[in-house]
Structures are given as structure tokens and as C-alpha cells.
Design goal:
With 1285 residues, the chain is of the alpha+beta class. The protein contains 44 helices and 20 strands.
Amino acid sequence: MPTDKDFDAAEARIGGIAPAKGAEGRFNAISDKATTAYAKAQQGGAYVDRLKRYKDSNPALVATAMDGLNKMGASDVVAKGKAIEQQLSKFAEKSQFVMKGLDLVAGVHPFIGAAVSVLKTAIQFEITRRNNDKKVLALKDKMMDMMDVLRSLKDVEDPSRVDANGTSLKGRMQRTLEGAMHDIHECSATCEEYLHKKFVVRLLDGSRWEGRLASYGDVFDKRREEFVLALNMHTALGVDNLQATMGASQNQLSMLLLFVQLQTLEERELLNLIDERGGPEVCLSNEQVFAELQAKMKVSKGARDSAAQEDVRIAIGQIREDMKEDIDVALAKERKAFDRKFYAIQETLEEMKNVVTRNSDRNTDIILANMKAGPHERILDKDLHAVWEFMSWRGSVKARQFIVSIQDHFLQKYGGGGEAIPTREENAAAPSDPASGADDPAQDKWAIKYITLTRVRPILEAFDDDASGWISIKEANTFTSTRPHDYSVLKWLAFWAAGFRVVCKDYALKIDALRVQMIKSATHALPCNRLLVDKYLSKWYMDIIDYLTRGVLTKDKYDGNEDDDDIWAHFHDFVTSEEARLQRNLDRFGVIDDSNTLSLILGPGRLERNIFPLLFLVLLRHYNLLRLAARFRIDDQDFDEAEASLANIVDALDDRLHTLVSNFRNQNLDPKQQLDTNLHKYSVYYDWTLNENVNAHEYRNIAHIDMRGHAPTTSILRYEYGLPSVPLHFYESFIAENAGPSPSSEVSGLWVGRHYYGHMSRDLHDGMLAIRIDVSDGKVTGEGKDYLGKFTLLGTANLVDPSGDPTVRLHIEFDTTAVYLSEFCSRSPVYRYIGDVQTEDGLFTKISGKWLLKSGYSDTFDEKGDFMLDRSLAIVARHRPPGVMDAKARWDMLAKVVLEQVRRRQGKWKYYSMRRKDRIRVVEANQRCFVSAEPQWYLRTYPPENTTWWFAEQQKIESRLVVEDIAFYRWLAQQRLRSETVHLGIGCDGCRGSPIGPRFICLDCKPADPNRGIDLCSKCRDATLSFPAPRSLEHVPSHDMLKTLRVLTRRELVRTLNFGRWRLAIARQRLELEKEYSIESESRSRCLNHRVCGSTVAKPCWSCIECPGDAFLCDSCEFRQLAMSVENPERDWKDAPTLDRENEEDLQPEGGDGFEASDNSSSSDSESEGESSTHFWWHVLVRVKDSPTPIAPSKLELDARLSILEQKFTAAQSSLALLEKKSDAAQRKLDDLVDLVVALDDKVDTGLDGRLEKLENASRVQQGLFDAQIAGVETLLRQVLGKLG
């Protein structure tokens, strides 16, 4: 049994325990201390576990972090991390303070001005960003601490003064300032690239990126020490001050430890899940594990995170593409775009410094002198100040009361006392006082008539940015300060009262017209651009833009401007200038890549102020991009940036909507009612978020505005583009197939062979490799061909000491650079071949060694495998098997060579048939291999189990093809993948894949939500399907079907289906009448392609719903239309003349998306024969067949129907039972209420009777007392009179 001394010893070992009485007290104290120590150990262990993910990519930083953790302890790390977190919450205030100080110093010492400007630009990225990352904020905070040292220059009178060492402070700091500017710029570029990565990439690959970011922390610390050293040397502050500063810097928390501390709870949970499942590689290798991570991300990040929504294999492909890219390569690739953005922000900030803002109409000295007089003295505008003072308001006021008071103020000032309100023309005619200024309110008396009670709400929106229902002094000052310089407050109020809605409606009409034109232009995109165009137009944010315009055009019923037809003229100058300003900012930045760019482009003020002009300008730019896609091959990055611009705008709108909804709910207001009544632009959008927007699918185009304008120029393209053409340069050969070998007595000449992936024995290759080299004076030059096309080569050749290997005479190295570039290669690859030239009997017979590939934009090369070249004929090299050949293998190879030559010379059909089969097979194999390797580029997936077989098939066929054929067939496969119509976001209800090519939509299955109808691909078009609630659909092959070869956007889907049903009924009726009345064949409906097929049509056939009149197609011609979908879209399916692209819409039916004109089109004989219209492959067809006859349903159909009926009956029973329960409960409540009323009535009656009786008794008692008192008084009077008498 332990004694007290034993406990004392344990106490001494643990330490820090207060004395306790008795063994039990000390034991409890020891237990508490041990628990605390264990908690600290766990905390420290957690930090160690989180640091492990950095150990491979950043060992030095991890060592520093571990050293800091050992010195400081986990609890101190947590405490310092929390303190820094609190500092980061005040990042904006701190940055404003530091910048003002540095600006003052730069005004005195201009030599630091450039560095201060770079710092301000870097900080501006975070000031204008909506969702800041704490890790980036911490780094920018350290950046500010580095530069904050320069504020000490305020005490330096002459930095140019030369000290005893012959140097000045300015000269000593110049190099450090230049280094700091470079570090700030590089750090900002890294931060932006890191933040542009998807959230899931930052999770799985965060160790690399966060390690790079953390390294800048040390860089800034060192720069700070250099600044301090230079200042101390000049000001002679002493070594002690320097050591203290450096000591404080060394005592700072490691950036890597800080990054770990700043991880959000959401990030920690997801990182723990990744670690539990085996790490990032397991998550990317196992689709089930990644799907689990995807589901958790969807819950935590919401629907806007694209990685949480995409197909698993496509998402994994995109992530792998990001993760395998070197950080330096990624930064170099985006450097040009970042520099353009960085300098644009810097230029914008410089312009803002030179802009004279309207801060106050009142004397600033008077404002400062009277600050203590009351809150109204903080108001900048004199009219608002007068109202605020008169009403004795405090810091804020009810918004409606504020607007009514302002209205009364201006009415009394300019329009009261029965005065007639002057018109705009009268003001223009009246002479004005030049000294009064352009913004004199007296010149804007015409605006008073717009400030009425019916327009209180629009004015309220202009002031009350947060929709709180209150207007603060800050909001009032913001409203007056952001008005144009030539606008008075009165005119500014009139703009928001009447002009703003007119402007919004005008831009909404233009945007709606643009959307119609963009959908039309998509059908004319070149095949190589079709996938990019369809992807762009199918994005979900296009629907959000449609919802915004519909909210303005359909829900804003207010039209209080009937009394003024010239309202647009009042504010046209301001609208035009704002649009020009936005256009300049867009041209300056080029792309809206994040929220801070959007803020800088929009300028100050709330989002709604300029969102419609900005959307119009952005969509107009993108419409011109789509028009250029009909003429040039556009780079993928141009469309990626277009998508990013719209996505960032819609994200800002989504954040704004959430803010408004939260504010309404905090005020106990119904968000839907408030948005429907006041903020119309968000009303339909909000309905969609509540899944209540079924009617929003019913689009009828409101605008019929031609937005084409001038032909677009290629200046809007930011990346490479070119004319579409077949790459004939693949067949520009420098060798003939049957060319004889070069002399083996010299190295120069023709060499033919292959390069292999990995060891040569694996026989994984990219087909034949042929080079013709010239070796002279140790230099190697020449040209060659591989699967990418033609290339040039340059290298060196050195003699080798024969003592090592007598067969090796020469060591050779050369790099190849592509001359022509196939479209499936995003950038020019550089290959390096390092090998030895071997000899046999004094002749040069073989070159073999290793080949390497240059890694992206860096200068490093990665080894890929072996290569081998010899002096064989090209045809022999194609048939040579890998490795060492025995006699039988040689004979087989020679037999294949001779047989191919004989067949080619004889021109036998068997030879051409074999080449045709090889072409078809290898193109399909290449398509499968491309999609399997990079599904994210082609937006589709194939079953993974067949990938290995298709790869083997590709290798087998390409081994016997010439290099020109390999290059061309790969290009052809890539073109087909890009030209096929992929109906993005649509799943085939039969096979669950995305329909590729034709899409079939059932016209008979009509769900409540039209986007959830029956969609089928070409393989499943005859499927029988049944779906329970909530879809409750039964589809059979006899249903009427609509077929489309183009992507139908959601805004045109319902109108297309409804119009298709109508045209189908007309077509079916016409054919039935022709059959019923036995009309002669010459007068019957004929195929649109009757000049080729010469047939009349009969059911079953197809009918075009986009051609005027009765337009029919037979089945064979309809199949030809499918073939035309992958050909040149500039020609119709009947080989019509090339269309004039600038007048392409002239061939389309007028009105909306192409259907309104067809509603009134005539059905003349010429039109029915197809003579007066042109049919295009993208036209939508409906299947015309006999009216379905009632047939006995199959057992499957009966079971499905019974199952649905049972579900409906069960649901009805449940609803009925629930209704009965509610009815019984209501009846019981009613009975209880009746009983309560009766009881209350009885109680009231009883109570009243009792009270009346008591009152009567009391009254009688009081009357008796009164009578007695009167009698007493009378007696007393008699006695008095008796004595007197």
C-alpha cells in the first residue's frame, strides 16, 4: 500500500500540483494532472498526424514545424493559433490601417512607392473576395507585417544620406524592396492558383500546395529582417533592437503548424475520411470510396461544388490531371493570365486614387466641429442632413418613414404650395447659374413627379442594401456618395424611383434575345467545336440567367411611367456611361475568374445595380465567341473561361439571394412574398430553389431583337485558333514506303523503328518512328515522323571508348520538336532520345537506348521507356515483332511484307477491304482509349471492363500501319469524339448512360416536371419501361417519339415537346386522309429528299417540326440525316450551297426559338414537297406511325400497372385515414369549443345574476343609511329651530 511519501514523490515527478490534504486529495490532484497531460499528449499527437501528410512533399518545413511543436507544446500552438485567427477576423481593418500608413510614408519617400503599390494590389485580392481562405489570409497578413516595418521610415529625414560605409539607406534597401516586390507577386500568383483549384483537389493534393504557400512565410520573415537590419544600420538603433526583432520573428508560429490549426471542421472531417480509407491514391483508385467522399462533400459544400455533382470517373480524371501537374508548371501556364489580372487591379487602384469622389455637399470643417451636436451631423448631403435633423432621428430610421420624409422635403422645397411642377423641357429652357454647378437640385425639378408614394418601394431598395427595413447613416451616405458627379440627389432618387426598372427591363429583353440567338448559333458550330458549344450552353447557370430575366419580364407588373414617354432620355447618359465603364473593365480583365475580379469590374454599390448590364456585355461577348466557333477551331480554354465568368456571376447572385432571404426571415417576413412583391429579379430564381418552378419551363420568347450586329473579330479570342482543315501534312512524307535503306557505312541517313512504353519486351508502343539524320562535327540535325506528325531534331554525337563495349562506336543524344501539331495534343511535346549507335562488322546497324518526355512547362525530362532504330525498310519495320526473332519469326515477317506488297501492286479488293476494316476498328479503339484515359475532356464514359481489350486491339492494328495512318486515324478518332452530340445532363432511362447522337423523347409520357420525362438513346428506343412514384410513368414502344440530333436546352424543351405533339397530329391526319381518299401518288406527300430517293411517304415515317408545311422523311433519308450530323455543318443534308453565316438566321423560322412562325405557316403543295424550304440535320423530327390499336397488355405491363395502382390505392388509403383522423380531431375540438362556450355562457349568466342581486342589496342598505341620516338632520334642525323660536 503506497504511503504519503510515495504520493509526494509522484507529485514531485508530475509537478505543478497544489498541496492537498491526505492521500485521497493528492491522488485526485495527480489524476487531474495526468488527465490534463494525456489531453495535451493527444492534442500533440493530432498535430503530428496532421503534419504527416506534408512529410513527403515538404520534409524541411515539416522538420521546422515539429521542432516548433516540441519547443512550444500543443497547448501553446493552439493558443497562438486562436490568437492569429482572431487577428485574421480583423484583416480588412488592419490592412486599411497599414496601407494608410505606408501611403503617407511613400508620399515622403517615393522610392518605396512601387513596393507599396504591389502590396496594395496583393491585399486587394482578399479585400474583394467573397469567401476568404484563412490560410491565404494568414500568408497575406505576414506579407503586411513584412512591409509594415517600412512605416519606421517616417522618422528618417534623408534616406539618400551616405553613411561612413559609403552607402545610403535608399541604396541599401533598393535591392531588398525589389526582392520583396518579386516575392509578393510570386506569392499572390501561387495563392490565386491554389484558390482556383477545386475544393476536392485542395483536400487530396493540399500537402504540395500548402507546403509551397508555407514556404513564403519564411521568405517574408527573412525580408522583414533585412528591412530591420537596413533601418537599424542607418538610424543606429543598436544591435539589441535588431536581436529583439529577430528573436520575436523566430518565436512566431510555424506557417505549416498554423495551416494545420486553421483547418476548418469540415476539412478535418473530410481529411480524416480520406486517411481512414487509405489516403488520396486509394480514393482516386476506388470509385466506391470516391463516391463516398463525393456524397460527404455534397452535404458539406452544397450543390454548387462541381466535383460533388460530376460523374465519378470524369471527376477522378479531372483530379488526376490536376494532381499530376507540377506546381511550377501550373504557375507558368497561368502566369500570363495572372499577370494581366494583377496589373489590371494595380491600374484600377491607381485610377481610383486620382478619381475625385463626391464625399459631401457640406463643409467638412463644419461637420467635424459639430460632430458632438447629434447623429445628423454625420450626414454628408445637405438635404438629407436637414431631414435627419428636423426629424430628430438617431443612428438609423425605419426605411419607409425615411423615404416618406425625403419625399415631403423635396415636395415642400420645390413643388409645394400649389406650385406646378416644372417639366424637363422647362428646366432646359430656363437660364441656369453657372456657379450653381451641373448638379444643382433646382435644375432637376422635373424629377419630383417621379418621387411618389407608388414608387416608395423602388427608392427603398436603393437605400436599404441589406433589406433590413432600416436605413443607417452609413447607408444614406453611401447612396449619396455613389451617385454620378453630374447628378443631384433629387435626380438620383428619380432614377431609382422610375428609371432603374426601365433599365432592368430593357437589359432583360436584350439578354433574352441573346439567349435565343445563342441557341440558334450553336447549330452552326464546326464539328470540332460542337462538344464545347453544347457543354457551354448546357450549364446550369444558363437556367439561372433565364430565371432572372423572367422574373423581371413576367413578374414586375408595375408600370407607372405612362405619363412620361421620354423617361429613358432622362437617364440615357448615365446608363450609356455605366455600360462603357463596365466594357472597359471587362476588356481590361478579360475573364471574371473569381469574386474579387467581379467586384472590381462592377465597382462600388450593391450587386443589383449593374448586374444586368454586366450580364448583357458578358453574354454578348460569348455570343460572338459562338459565332466565331462556326468559322474557326476554338481553343478549349476560351470556352472554359467563358463558363468561369458566368459561374462566378451566378455564385455572387446566389450569395446575394441567400443574404436577402436570411434578412427577411430574421424580420419574420415571408421571403417568397417579399421577392415576388419587390425584388422581382430574384422571384423566379427563388421559386426554383424551392422546387416550385414547374411553370418556369413554359418559355415563350418575349424578345425578338436581332443581336448580331457587326461580324465578330478574333480579338476576343485569348488563345490559339485556326481554320478547320484535314491535316494533310500527316502525309507529307520525307521517305517513301518502299525507299531503300541508307548506306550502313555512315551514321547519317534513314533510321526506322519504334519507341516503347517501359521495357521493349512489353511491346507497348505508339507505332512506327522514322528519322533522317545528318551527323557532322559532333552535331546531329534532321527530321522525322511519329504518331503526332512531322518533327525536327537537334542534338550531339560523341565518340565512345571501344574498351567498354567494342560494338558501340558512338553515343548520341537529340531532342525532337513537333513542326505540325495534331489537335489532340494541347501543347508541343519535346522528346529526348539518348542512346548508343551499335556496329556489326564495321557497319552501323542499330541505335537503341532510352527516350524521355519533357515535363510540361519545366525543363525536366521524365524517362518513359526504350527505343530501337535500325536500317530496315519502313515496310519491314512495321511487321517486325519485338525482341529477338528466330528463323520462323523471320520467315513469317517476310511473308507478311511480300504479301502486302503484292496485294498493293495488284490493287486487289481484299487489300483495300482490310485497310477499311483496320481504319474503322482502330478509330473506334482510339475513341475508347481516349475516353478511358481522359473522360473529363470528352464528357462521357465507357464500361471499364472493355478498356483492356480495346487497348490491345489498338496496339495490334497500329503495329501494321504506317506512321501517317496512325497519326491521321488518331486525329479522326479525336474529331469524332468532339463532333458527336452528347446530351449533357440527360440520362437514358434504359441504359443509364448519356445519349450520344440522337436523343429520343416520349411524347405520351407527361410527368409533372417536364425534365423528368422518358429519354432514350438509339439502342434503347424500343424499350418497355415502368417507373413508380413520383414519376409514375409507363412507357411502351408504341408511344409517339420525338427525335433530336442537337442538344435541347431546358428553356426550349417544353415548347419543343408541345409543338411536336401538334405537328404530329397534323402529319398523321394528312397521311390518313391521303390513304382514306386514295389520292393519286403524284399528289401525295413526298419525302423531303424526293429528288434523290423519289419516293412518296407512308406511315411509318418521320416529320420535321421545324420546316414550314408538311415536311416528311422516309427512314432511309432520316438515316442520312444522322450521317450528316458529323459532317460539315455549313451544308444542308441535301448538299445545298454553303450558307452565308452572317445571314444564317434568314433560313430559320422567325420568332423565338424557331416555332412561332411555324404556327401560322401555310401548307401549300410546294411546301409539302419541300421545294420552298431547306431542311438541316439539326431539325427536330417526330415519328409518324399508325394510331396505336388497343392490344392486350403483357404480364410485365399488367404487373407494373397493378403495382402502380396498389401504390396509388395505398397512398389514397393513407391520405383518407389521415384525413379522417384530422376530421375527428377537428370535430373533437369543435365539440370542446361548444362545451366551453356553453359553460362560459352559464358562468356569465350566473355571475351576472349574483352580482346584480348583491348590488341591489347594497343599494337598499345604502338607501336606508341615507334615509336615516336625513331623518337625523331633520330632527337636529327642528331642535335648533325650537331653541331659536
